[in-house]
Amino acid sequence: MDSAELLKKLSECVEMGKVNKDAPFPPAMKGMDGADELTRQALEMGIKPIEILNDALIAAMEKVGEKFSQKKIFVPQMLISAKAMNASMEHLKPFFQSGEVKRKGKFIIGTVAGDLHDIGKNLVAMIVEGAGWEVIDLGVDVKTPKFLQAIAEHPEAIVGLSALLTTTMQSMKNTVNEIHAQYPNIKLIVGGAPVTDAFSKEIGANAYAHDPQSAVSYLNAQVA
Ligand code: B1M
């Protein structure tokens, strides 16, 4: 198998959610190498981590994000693709951490104060990471001082806020106000099931993303 074929196969594994050889899903790929084994082989073959990231992983996650936006796949498939991507990323992390591969930028994300829902936020974090960004995930029930602390540590970052409850949309508004009061130039993206574009404008966020792929599109546009 040459390097182009290997990257294509790896990309398919991430798109289809084939984590490793032992993984039973998807049934059509049973017994075949998965993202874990193929990433190891790609590195052993001398393919650069940046090529693996861009040509296989990011390409695959873009397709996954688009299919999700078009309702051709649903949350479970997206989660399993993200799991396969993570299996591959485990092999690439040392290269990112050493600075050998340059990320597009930093993205701080958290679910706002009072809100414990994290499935959507985690999906956004994983897809954004798969798109080549360094993600600083602050978790759930994140109060404004924790966001402010993270921004002080990473002033170049773009910040994402997630809310799933109509009640915590008020926390989102407060956090956006307080962040912008201290850091008027920081870019803020908001999202989550009850959040709308109109609400995002009303509270002065810089952008509304209805799904992970639109968050990626906004982020990539900032560094294009
Ligand atoms: Co809760 N819950 N829940 N819940 N829960 C909802 C949200 C609710 C709609 C259910 C209902 O009543 N029909 C309702 C909210 C009603 C409202 O406010 N209008 C509700 C409620 C009321 C509650 C409690 C108050 C229940 C109670 O205790 N009485 C309580 C609140 C706890 C708290 O947060 N303080 C509660 C608790 C829970 C669980 C802990 C049991 C669990 C959360 C587990 C977890 O997250 N680890 C839970 C769950 C699972 C849900 C539902 C069933 C599913 C949410 C979910 O994960 N969806 C939900 C009903 C529903 O949505 N069907 C419900 C899948 C996820 C992939 O979608 O999060 O929307 P979502 O993320 C999407 C987009 O929104 C977007 O990308 C994702 C992928 O497309 N997105 C972003 C999200 N964040 C983004 C950020 C971005 C960009 C895009 O940029 C920064």
- How far is the first residue's CA from the last residue's CA? 34 Å
Percent helix, as a range, is: 40-55%
Count the helices. How many?
9
CATH architectural type of the largest domain: 3-Layer(aba) Sandwich
Q: What's the CATH first level of the largest domain? A: Alpha Beta
Shape: globular
Name the CATH homologous superfamily of the largest domain: Cobalamin-binding domain
Structure description:
- The longest helix is centred in the middle third of the chain and has 23 residues, at 75-97.
- A five-stranded parallel beta sheet has the order 2-1-3-4-5, with helices on both faces.
- The chain folds into two domains: 3-98, Methionine synthase domain (Methyltransferase, Methionine Synthase (B12-binding Domains), Chain A, domain 1, Orthogonal Bundle); 106-222, Cobalamin-binding domain (Rossmann fold, 3-Layer(aba) Sandwich), CATH 3.40.50.
- The protein has helices at residues 3-16, 35-44, 49-69, 75-97, 119-130, 144-153, 169-182, 197-202, 212-223; strands at 106-111, 134-137, 158-162, 188-191, 207-208.
- It is globular.
- It has nine helices and five strands.
- The two termini are 34 Å apart.
- It is α/β, with parallel strands linked by helices.
- α1 packs across α4 (75-97) and α4 packs across α5 (119-130).
- It binds CO-5-methoxybenzimidazolylcobamide.
- The site of CO-5-methoxybenzimidazolylcobamide (B1M) has 29 residues, from α5, β3, β4 and α9.
Task: Write a concise keyword list for the protein shown above.
5 strands, 54% helix, binds CO-5-methoxybenzimidazolylcobamide, globular, five-stranded parallel beta sheet, Rossmann fold, alpha/beta, 9 helices, Methyltransferase, Methionine Synthase (B12-binding Domains), Chain A, domain 1, 224 residues
